[in-house]
Structure formats: C-alpha cells, structure tokens
Amino acid sequence: MALHLRRRRLVVPLLVCAALLAASAAPASAEGRTTRTSWTTSKAFVGAVAALRAGDTLELAPGTYDIGAVKPTLHQGTSSAPIRLTAADPDRPPHLRGHLILEDADHWSVTHLKITATVPDEPALKMAGGTGWSVTDSEFTGAASTRDYANVAIDSNRYTRTAPSDWSFSDNCVHDAAPRPEGDPAGYHNLYVNAEGGGRGGLITRNVMYGAPGGANIKIGAGGNTAVRGAWGVRVEYNTLFDAAWQIFLFGDIDDISVRRNLLVRSTGGPSVSTGQYFHSLPGGAVRVDSQDNYGYQLGGRPTFALSSPTSSYLDAGNFEGSDPRFAVGCGRFRPTEPAAARYGRYGAEPHDGTPAMVCTAAWAGETRRPA
Q1: pLDDT value at position 323?
Q2: Domain of 313?
Q3: What does 71-120 look like in DSSP terms, one character per residue?
Q4: Where does the UniProt annotation place the signal sequence (predicted)?
C-alpha cells in the first residue's frame, strides 16, 4: 500500500446541479487531510476509510481492487466539513469489486467510483442510515451475477434503527440488475430505497439506469411489508430509465413522493403489469405520490403510463407517451435525438419559464450539459 499524506485545503468539488441539490449540498469544507492511496488488501482499504475524520478526503488511485465484503467503521463529517471518498483521477475512476457498506455516513460524499458487486446475494453499494450524504458521478453494476435484489441499496441501519435522511443520489449510472428466478415473487432492481422505519428527504436525479428485467429501475418502499413505514419526502427528477419490468415501483407506506420530468422507456413486465410507474398498496387518503410531466415510450401495460392497486392515492398529471427518443445505450450515452424527448431525463433542461438556466457537469461522461 502506498500512502501519501499531506495537509491542504480540499479542492475536490462535488459536481452536482446546484439548482436541484441546494437543499443537500454542503458548504465549503474546513481544512482537513487529503490521502491519496492504492492498496493490495481489503484490510488496508478499510483502514484508510476508517481513518477519515471530518474535513478529510481519501483519493483512490486508478486500478482494479478486490475489496470483498467490507463495512468500515465510519466517523461522521459535518455540513461545513464533509468527508470525501473519491478518485485521484476522475477521468480514470478506481474499479472496486465486492460489496461496500457505509453505515451512518453523515455528511459523506462518495464520487467518481465504479463498484461491481461480486459477493453472492449482496449489492455493489449499501448506504445504511446517515444524514446529509451524497453519491455522485459513479457507476454501479454486478447484481446480475450476485443475484442480489439491487445494485444499490439505500436502507436503514438495522442496528441503530436510524433511517437515511436528506441524502442525494445523482449523476450516476446503474445497470444490469438480476433477473427474477422463475416462481420468485420478489423484484430485482437497480436502485432500491428500502428505508424501513421512515426517514425524510431524499433526491434521485440526473441518473441513467437500465437493464432490470426482473423488477424496477427505481423501487421505493419498505420491502414487501405494507405495515412498515418506508421513505418519505423523496424526489425522483430528471432520470433516464430504460428496459425494466417497471421503470418506477412505489410500494406501501410512503408519502410525499415527487416523480417529475423523467424519461421512461421500454417496460417489459408483460401485458398485465408492464407500465412506466407501478403504484402498489399505497395507503388511501391524502395524495401520497405526485407524478407530473414525465415522458414515456413503449411502456405497454394497462393503462400504459401508470398502474395502481385499488387503494393507492396519487396525482397523475401531464404524463404522456411520445415518440421514440432515439438514443444510444450505455453509461455516458442516452442522449435523445428526438427533440421532444430531449427535454426530459438525464440530459433534460428546465422549462424556459424565466428561471435561471442550469449547467451540470457529468464527470463520468466527460461533458458539460447546457439547456438547448
């Protein structure tokens, strides 16, 4: 293991769309340590992560690293001094192979990584509990081989009984979830927000997700138990979701969920359940889900855009199926050439209604996005 430690002001920015992430973005950090490292054992990696304190940055050198199943003991950052786990060279993200668990990662920033799940029945990344954390500009895959229920799991910490809050998952590429075994009623997803016990405040934005033949690209809900409260106050905005049984699956006791300006393409769940958004067993009463102004293509199902269980309560306004968006498939791709579709999803721009135009940088795609 080669470690180079120096004290300086942190210069690695979290690349996000400030207009969308202002609520979760951290102020400039206090001065801390920056460690640049490569390693030959998972124990060395765990030790380097566990050594981080508020304001510190760990920069991972390019290369492929077999980490196995690891759960480092974490110290907490603060809003003014977050802890950063990132790449030494964002153009050459380190490739971690295994299963990484980050528990109660308060004010942590995880960015510019590629993680491939290789541990049987485990996801590539699990974020358990924690507040004010962000996962950005990274790639996650491998669940098709490990047969886990997700490539990325956002979960509660089962030991401290704390649910995640005020988190963000943005500008990532998540792909190739596990297929559903024959006769297995469970779903297998790309991103699963399984925050049992609640938690409030989360943002899923500017991501590309594809390849979930046995489930959803995004599922939000507390497992299969309708009696357990799931995540509340989650916004799902400007994502491109492609080739899944359902693009978005919302289940059980969730509340205040906003689904807006996503690009949803090709649902393959079959004629009875294939749909863009599947709302299942949501409690009745007040509106729990606000789904507006999303663009769909080849969603199938009945109806074609949203399928709901009888007791679900949701607002469906301005959603429509359009023409073929015409894009290439893969991380860093999915840029529609159909003009109407280009306003939605990963590369979509806010409507020109007098609000300031946004500029977002996608590090893994190596490009700057500007409104048309």
Answers
A1: 94
A2: 95-359
A3: -PPPPP--SSS-EEEEESSTTS--EEEEEEEEES-TTEEEES-EEEE-ST
A4: 1-30
Q: 221, 251 in Cβ contact below 8 A?
A: yes
In a domain, 15, yes or no: no
Q: Is residue 3 included in any domain, yes or no?
A: no
pLDDT in tens, 235-274: 999 999 999 988 998 887 788 889 999 999 998 876 555 5
Burial (CB count within 10 angstroms: exposed 0-12, middle 13-18, buried 19+), residue 259 = buried
pLDDT (tens digit per residue) in 318-359: 888 899 999 999 999 999 999 999 999 999 987 654 333 332
Please, are residues 48 and 33 in contact by the beta-carbon 8 Å criterion? no
Each residue of 76-108: b (16+ CB within 10 Å) or e? bbbbebbbbbbbbebeebbbbbbbbbbbbbbbb
Sign of CA dihedral 31, 360, 94, 122: positive
Q: What is the helix, strand, coil percentage profile of the chain, to 5? A: 5, 45, 50
pLDDT for 120-139, tens place per residue?
999 999 999 999 999 999 99
Q: Is residue 26 part of a domain?
A: no
Q: Is residue 75 part of a domain?
A: no
Q: How confident is the model at residue 310 (pLDDT cuts 50, 70, 90)?
A: low
In the three-class reduction of DSSP (H, G, I as helix; E, B as strand; rest coil), residue 251 is classed as strand
Q: Which residue bears the tokens 């990963």?
A: 346
Is 168's pLDDT higher than 80? yes
Reply yes or no on whether the pLDDT at 47 is more than 80. Answer: yes
Looking at residue 116, which CATH number applies to its domain?
A: 2.160.20
Q: Could you say which DSSP state residue 346 is in?
A: G
Of 276, 243, 205, residue with least CA distance to 18: 205
Based on the structure, what is the number of domains in the chain?
Answer: 1
Tokens linked to 31: 């001065």
